[in-house]
Amino acid sequence: MTPKKDAKTLILETLKEKACLKQKVFKQTIEIFQDFKAQGEELVNDLKSEMEKVDTDVLIEFINKSDHEFHIKFGGDILVFYMHTNVFDFEKSHSIWNSSYLKEDELRVYCGMINVYNFLADSFKYNRVNDIGYLVARCFFNKDKHYFVEGKRQLGFLYNDFINEVISNEKIRQIIESAILYSMDFDLLTPPYSTMQEVSVHDIIEATNAMSIKTGKRLGFKFQTDNDFVE
Length: 231
Fold this sequence. Notes:
This protein is 37% helix and 18% strand.
């Protein structure tokens, strides 16, 4: 009969397995995020040099906010790339568990995550803190740098081969380009009349000072209801 392990041994074994693994995934995600920054800045420079020949008033800008965040501004939009500082598992109901890739090694499930949000550029320019951003995509990377993307339209089906795909600068560039293209497909919608019938004095004063009446590309509509979103 195998002797029962004491609590201390179990704790140490778990730390060696999961804690060390999560540290590895976290450090790799930081490296991948730096690659996202580099590719984002390179793409911005490429686009800017071309657009300056056409219209100098159309701004394209790369903004490095912090170690875990950067922005790409293009026309009236901003994409916010944000690296989460935690490492994630997935619920057993998630389709990722159906693959032989995870059945061979369940530790492959632990992933770092980078979120991509779409905002109106004016929301940041005028400090409209009530404005709404929308999750365009979230990218997951495991210990072997295999990756997949959950997102809208092409982002939801072009980058979901978790078994075979390994992240690279070429793939990062494609993900960023897809996120920009998706965001450019949507123009600003007028807020529903019913949501604007009553406005307080405070709102008007704040609107004058900081343009704070809530605005969003799809205000009044839930982003999640788009039927091409991959859960």
